[in-house]
Specification:
Blueprint lengths: L3 E7 L7 H8 L12 E6 L6 E6 L2 E9 L2 H8 L7 H12 L3 H4 L2 E9 L4 E6 L8 E5 L2 E5 L2 H5 L10 H7 L3 H4 L12 E2 L4 E6 L2 E6 L13 H20 L4 E5 L4 H13 L5 E7 L11 H11 L3 E4 L12 H7 L8 H13 L4 E3 L21 H17 L3 H4 L8 H5 L1 H4 L22 H6 L10 E3 L5 H8 L7 E2 L2 E2 L1 H7 L5 H4 L11 H7 L1 H6 L1 H6 L8 H12 L6 H21 L7
Parallel strand pairs: 12-13, 12-15, 13-14, 15-16
Antiparallel strand pairs: 1-2, 1-8, 3-4, 4-5, 5-6, 6-10, 7-8, 7-9, 10-11, 17-18
């Protein structure tokens, strides 16, 4: 089963249906009726990250980790040896939904009172495992496995057209889903949200956004010293308990800083593995191994070259990935991420440290400090936008999507309207940095990978770091005319000068563009089966076929078109996988 909490509940005192336990838990003994009307199972590759306890008639189930368990126990007046479930239960009793923030970490909690027949679900401020739930009459099902949930006959796998449309969208449109999913009867537990379910109904409480930070009076050097001390604690904590830890390393600013801190903070006997995206052997393509090699050599650590397998299909995620992530929208570099997860698993590393989200804090581009464009330039842009709108009236609507929706689905936007990106913020250098646009997106990202044995760690999204940096003057992002000044200051003197001052970027997946062209014929050949699975009801497969044919015959396409093609092909294969019993999770 997938990592997370799986549970069945009858809100009135009645036994569970053995047919439901067979579906959700893989139960093989049909004689087990579960007379209490409640059953929960906890799963994680690291069994020490699952815990449960019963206090005053309330059973608490907990999956995940706490960042500062000792501090939490002291704040709650608990004994030093109190377990994670006991700590989480006390935190929820004391703080309610605020425990999602005051109990820092990445976790999911379920609490069940048999006396009051009340079920409570609570997720930490950052998502670890996905958690879905369905409430139909007096029955409740909870699972991190959406497909398994949909296989319950009273839940079902009927799509919600509006929810599916938004799921296919870019983040501004997807964010309007709230707690809905693409299934009619399934909802998602969002980070920082408490859901209480009784026979009388369901209620929800949500953490407010982080409070506006007050401007710090620290000097730049003092602020960077605080950042380094905090990041050391964060990285050390994320590596704790593992003999082998893998770091994704490109030689860029974010990944290089984390690799250096990992090497500095590793425990005795702990092994650090540096993994770099590399061009296929003999391809002649440029890659970042030269930059990453400088970091590896400086730290005295070996560098492992990672490239997608020759058999990996760029338009079609493997069945394992589709089954595990259960979403029609995936990273366009899914094949490379699969290779990273596989490599980490092969070397025995259960944690894969990823430098994503650094741009939200330490490595901000500081575009918000740019002077607003002059009125003649704004006027020229307005004219250009008007011409583009007249030439392509559906462009604005299509820009809201990753995957190209079918004309019928797109027509539904007449009721909802396209959702655009948030306006670019403008700050003076002496204003507080605040929260970057999209901060809630990074908190919502799950840490699961395509390998059940490997989990991502994202140190740069730690709320403590986000809140610390949000109080810094925006001008800290640029010093002496150089952007990304904060992270460069931390690297200076600790890694080669060429790394600390690097400003060039290279393709993350060097062979990606070539493989899009090479594999276009195979993607076209899959379209009949995808149509048969019903994907054309949701996706514009006629457009996809035209684009694939153009790529196959050498036509130049924009990056936006290629990305939309790939996303549409992903979604089409998702529908095919979802509809095929033999390809569903076991």
């Amino acid at each position: 089963m997938k990592s997370g909490i799986h549970a069945l509940v009858h809100l009135r005192e009645a036994p569970l249906d053995v047919r439901d336990t067979r579906v959700l838990f893989g139960e093989t003994d049909d004689r087990i009726a579960h007379q209490s009307g409640f059953r929960a199972e906890l799963h994680d590759p690291d069994s020490f990250l699952t815990a449960r306890c019963g206090v005053r008639g309330i059973e608490t189930c907990f999956v995940g980790h706490l960042d500062e368990p000792d501090e939490a126990r002291r704040a709650l007046g608990l004994a030093a040896g109190a377990g994670a479930a006991e700590t989480a239960a006390a935190a929820h009793d004391a703080w309610g939904v605020a425990a999602a923030r005051r109990l820092p970490g990445e976790w999911t909690m379920l609490r069940w009172s048999a006396r009051s027949r009340t079920l409570v679900l609570l997720a930490s401020e950052r998502t670890r495992d996905p958690c879905f739930f369905s409430v139909v009459g007096d029955r409740v099902a909870v699972s991190s496995d959406l497909r398994r949930l949909a296989d319950l006959p009273w839940v079902g796998d009927q799509f919600d057209p509006d929810g599916l449309m938004r799921t296919l969208g870019r983040y501004p449109l997807r964010a309007t889903l709230g707690d809905r999913t693409f299934l009619k009867t399934a909802r998602r537990l969002r980070p920082g949200v408490e859901v209480t379910i009784t026979a009388a109904g369901t209620s929800t409480q949500t953490l407010p956004p982080p409070p506006q930070a007050l401007l710090t009076d620290l000097s730049f050097d003092e602020a960077m010293a605080e950042v380094e001390a905090l990041l050391r604690r964060i990285v050390k904590r994320r590596m704790a308990g593992h003999r082998d830890v893998a770091f994704m390393l490109s030689g860029g600013l974010d990944s290089s800083l984390l690799a250096w801190l990992g090497a500095e903070e590793r425990a005795a006997g702990q092994r650090i593995h540096l993994l770099c995206s590399a061009a296929p052997e003999g391809s002649g393509l440029a890659d970042e191994t030269g930059w990453a090699g400088q970091v590896a050599d400086h730290l005295g650590l070996p560098l492992i070259r990672v490239a997608p397998a020759a058999s990996a299909e760029v338009y079609t995620p493997g069945t394992r990935t589709l089954q595990h992530l259960q979403s029609p929208i995936l990273s366009p570099r899914h094949d490379l991420y699969e290779a990273f997860a596989d490599t980490a698993e092969e070397i025995g590393a259960a944690t894969l440290v990823d430098g994503s989200f650094g741009e939200m804090t330490l490595s901000s581009h500081a575009f918000f400090l740019d002077r607003p464009p002059s009125w003649p330039r704004l006027w020229a842009r307005a004219i250009r936008r008007g011409l583009q709108a007249a030439q392509a009236p559906r462009r604005d609507a299509l820009a809201a999507f990753h995957a190209r929706p079918s004309p019928e689905l797109l027509a539904a936007l007449g009721d909802t309207g396209p959702v655009g990106d948030a306006p670019v913020r403008r700050l003076r250098p002496d204003e507080a940095f605040g929260l970057e646009e999209g901060w809630e997106k990074m908190f919502a990202a799950s840490t699961v990978s395509s390998s059940t044995a490997v989990r991502y760690a994202y140190p740069f999204r730690d709320p403590r770091l986000v809140r610390l940096v949000s109080a810094f003057p925006a001008g800290f992002t640029v010093q002496d005319g150089a952007p990304r000044a904060m992270i460069r200051a931390l690297l200076k003197g600790n890694l080669p000068e060429a790394i600390a001052t690097r400003q060039c970027k290279m393709p993350f997946s060097p062979s990606h563009a070539a493989r899009l062209r090479e594999q276009a014929p195979a993607a076209r050949a899959r379209l009949p089966a995808q149509r048969e699975a019903g994907a054309d009801a949701w996706l514009d497969l006629a457009w996809l076929e035209e684009q694939l044919s153009a790529v196959e015959h050498g036509a130049p396409l924009t990056t936006a078109d290629l990305t939309a093609m790939q996303a549409t092909a992903f979604a089409a294969e998702f529908f095919s996988c979802w509809a095929t019993p033999s390809r569903r999770p076991g």
